[in-house]
């Protein structure tokens, strides 16, 4: 090789390093059952260890909520200043994604993954900001609580009586390279709350009487344990498939039939949990028809949820929903259908078959799951 074509040996390490940095970063996610279990503390403790090993670590955004033990882990870490956004006469602070990209660290800490960004931000949700960092080759360490998973939104409300407004698609958690459960018993969490280690005294008293009741914490903890166990099972399943060098095709399908009502979102979440338990494909179907402007908006929200949960969406045509669904069940090889349970009067029950009854007659080997509406 001539000297003109021979690569510069001193330039090779820099080139390799630059190429490595263009690869997608990894997401390491600390999962908790509720606030105060120690997710942020664990994340900062990991950052201090990484820094001691010589890794390039920065704090993109961390919320200590005034907790002294957590704040004690911040000194020595480089903190990227937050971006200030003016909104209705108030200045709000958010993570400065552009500054982090300019700094280009190896690892970035991003707390509270389900956070909704301030109006006027380039992206609506913090997990979308994290996607930008990952695409740039930056490794991200983040935190989230189990009640923020979209598929569990209805379950959390039924258990605690509280509707969680900030949610993230389950696909974000599924795509995490590492999921680490930070566990704490309900009794220990309540003790931390009483001692002022989570909220200030006045706020702690109110929390102990509402969200932080023992039965709520126990239910949330069980959800977190189950979600982590599910992740472990999926990783083991993937590993075993790779070892045996074979591929298992999905042979079961769950079909959720929806309309333009808000109840449809409950049906999709129930169908998603059913499909996850059976390792089945999730299909969401709706009948094409003329809708009001409000109906179109509601249907649009429902279809967004279906996409967030990685469902296949199929619009079926026809005036008879029974015939349309029966044809779809046969074409897709569906074994399970999720329908809304509709209350009907005695005369209506005598004169007309329900959609569930008619569908089971048309498809005798179909399992139909009826979901009752909840106020």
What would you say this structure looks like, in words?
With about 375 residues, this protein is of the alpha/beta class. The protein folds into 2 domains: about 15-240, P-loop containing nucleotide triphosphate hydrolases (Rossmann fold); about 255-370, 3-Layer(aba) Sandwich (Rossmann fold). It is built from 15 helices and 13 strands. The protein has a 6-stranded parallel beta sheet, sandwiched between helices. Helix 5 links the parallel strand 6 (about 105-110) and strand 7. The longest helix has about 30 residues, at about 215-245. The protein is elongated. The N and C termini lie far apart (about 75 Å). Mean pLDDT is about 85; it is low at about 1-20 and about 245-250.
Number of individual domains:
2
Helix content: 40-55%
CATH domain class name of the largest domain: Alpha Beta
CATH fold type of the largest domain: Rossmann fold
CATH superfamily of the largest domain: P-loop containing nucleotide triphosphate hydrolases
Protein structure class = alpha/beta
Please tell me what the overall shape is: elongated
Spatial strand arrangement across the major sheet: 3-2-6-7-1-8
CATH architecture classification of the largest domain:
3-Layer(aba) Sandwich
N-to-C SSE series?
HEHEHEEEHEHEHHEHHHEHEHEHEHHE
Alpha-carbon distance between the termini? 77 Å
Poorly predicted runs: 1-21, 244-249
Tell me about the largest β-sheet: 6 strands, parallel
Number of strands: 13
């Amino acid at each position: 090789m001539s000297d003109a074509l021979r690569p510069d040996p001193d330039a090779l390490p820099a080139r390799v390093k630059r190429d490595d940095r263009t690869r997608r970063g990894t997401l390491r996610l600390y999962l908790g059952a509720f606030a105060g279990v120690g997710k942020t503390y664990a994340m900062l403790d990991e950052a201090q260890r990484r820094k001691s090993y010589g890794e390039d670590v920065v704090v993109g955004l961390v919320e200590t909520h005034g907790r002294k033990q957590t704040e004690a882990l911040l000194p020595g870490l480089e903190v990227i200043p937050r971006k200030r956004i003016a909104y209705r006469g108030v200045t709000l602070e958010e993570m400065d994604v552009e500054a982090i990209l300019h700094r280009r660290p190896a690892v970035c800490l991003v707390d509270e993954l389900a956070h909704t960004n301030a109006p006027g931000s380039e992206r609506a949700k913090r997990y979308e900001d994290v996607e930008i960092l990952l695409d740039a080759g930056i490794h991200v360490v983040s935190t989230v609580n189990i009640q923020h998973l979209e598929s569990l939104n209805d379950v959390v409300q039924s258990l605690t009586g509280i509707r969680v407004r900030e949610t993230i698609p389950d696909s974000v958690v599924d795509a995490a390279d590492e999921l680490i459960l930070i566990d704490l018993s309900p009794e220990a969490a309540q003790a931390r709350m009483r001692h002022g280690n989570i909220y200030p005294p006045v706020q702690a008293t109110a929390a102990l009487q509402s969200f932080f009741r023992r039965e709520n914490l126990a239910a949330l903890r069980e959800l977190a344990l189950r979600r982590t166990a599910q992740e472990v099972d999926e990783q083991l399943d993937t590993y075993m498939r790779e070892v045996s060098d074979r591929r298992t095709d999905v042979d079961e399908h769950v079909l959720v039939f929806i309309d333009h009502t808000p109840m449809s979102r409950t049906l999709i979440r129930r169908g998603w949990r059913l499909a996850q338990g059976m390792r089945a494909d999730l299909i969401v179907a709706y009948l094409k028809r003329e809708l009001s402007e409000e109906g179109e908006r509601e249907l649009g929200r429902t279809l967004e949820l279906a996409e967030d949960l990685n469902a296949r969406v199929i619009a079926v045509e026809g005036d008879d929903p029974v015939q349309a669904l029966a044809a779809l069940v046969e074409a897709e090889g569906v074994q399970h259908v999720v329908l809304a349970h509709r209350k009907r009067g005695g005369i209506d029950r005598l004169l007309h078959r329900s959609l569930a009854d008619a569908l089971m007659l048309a498809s005798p080997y179909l399992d139909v799951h009826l979901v009752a509406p909840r106020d």
